């Protein structure tokens, strides 16, 4: 009798597995993390869940209770867990640990389930120069940091999308030269030309939500005005020459020498007055 009862409680090793080891869910939705095992119900398995993020390990489910911020939004289903209203902070690896008595003693098994919480792209921040000179290198930047997975970027000019490969424009006989990086969001003109003038905006998308864009900004590209530069140089040269002639004329008329002589006379007068004061004081003492 005793022998047959013990036979029913024998467990030859513990096997732990999951129906889905890579789980994805949109932010603020519910998620199911599967953990199954071969321990018989009569024996009673001990179930623990832990969250692993980098080198940090924290409890999720311990001694029959959920821990931390999982208390009010998670439930245990046999040995699996259901989490409600997941956020991006819930992303990470979760370890399900099962332990139970066996014929050889206490044994344990475990399985890891990864959770990736998907977050839509947010409105990107765009940097577009207001003006630029033709023939120079100009870079437009676009970036957003909320989307999970990371966003891809597209640039638009005057409402039309710019192809990732600028060779497309050669078929339309347009002289446009640029480099578009859809991962970093940079649009590089090397060099920029007057034909690149227009309104630009960027769009971020990661297929989780709707694409998001930044406000359109106008970039004005002008040719270098050589005539204006030469005229400016000539005007500055004329001003400097006029100043030089004025100084020369003043020196020739003796304005600077007269000023120096008046200053010398003033200093002599002050010395004379001080000498008089000294003599007067001396005579008073005697």
UniProtKB/TrEMBL annotation:
Major subcellular site: other
GO biological process, one term: leukocyte cell-cell adhesion
Localization annotation: Cell junction, Tight junction; Cell membrane
PROSITE patterns reported in the protein's UniProt record: IG_LIKE
Keywords of the record: Cell junction, Cell membrane, Disulfide bond, Immunoglobulin domain, Membrane, Signal, Tight junction, Transmembrane, Transmembrane helix
Domain Ig-like: start-end pairs: 33-114, 120-227
Superkingdom as given in the UniProt entry: Eukaryota
Name of one Pfam family that matches: ig
Transmembrane intervals: 228-250
InterPro entries linked: Ig-like_dom, Ig-like_dom_sf, Ig-like_fold, Ig_sub, Ig_sub2, Ig_V-set, Immunoglobulin_dom, JAM2
Keyword Disulfide bond: yes
One Gene Ontology cellular component: cell surface
Entries under PANTHER family matching the protein: JUNCTIONAL ADHESION MOLECULE B
Similarity annotation: Belongs to the immunoglobulin superfamily.
Protein name: Junctional adhesion molecule B
Organism annotation: Crotalus adamanteus
